[in-house]
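task queued by scheduler; priority normal; single chain, no ligands, no partner chains; default sampling; output format set to structure tokens
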Amino acid sequence: MTKFCGKPDFVAIDFETAIAHQICAVAVVSVKDRQIVDEFYTLVRPKGNRYSYHNSQVHGITAADTFDAPSFAQVFPILERLLHSNVVVAHNESFDRNVLQKNMQEIGVDYRRLNLPSRWECTLQIYRKKGFKPANLKACADKMGVELNHHEALSDARACAKLYLMR
């Protein structure tokens, strides 16, 4: 997609993790005037390129996939440009925000540098308040007719953005 240079109305983010909070994939979708105007996706080589068997079973990403991928430190400048001072949306914002904060801490970057609120917009909470049970991303996407290839970071971020627009 063409790189959008203006300020988006919001960005939706999703991380996949290899083990604990170690990122193995990230996607950011930028939305302006109710349209997706930019998408960013990359695999990320987690620290030590180690994976939990369970996590790989969920998202299908393995150490072989990320062997030559950039580290979080290499990807962070792009994330900083996409996130800085924007409204950030995630389906389970506390998970994604904590993953970002812990990875930033590991590379010696203070989270406050992003100029983001202490909590992001959370589609999980929005749809729980609407009475959705369950309110996980797949259930919400299915009920709202949003296309989703669950646990693929770019698809998850797109679905989150669309659900946020439908709130």
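post-processing summary
- The beta strands are 10-19, 22-32, 35-43, 88-90, 121-122.
- The two ends are 25 Å apart (CA to CA).
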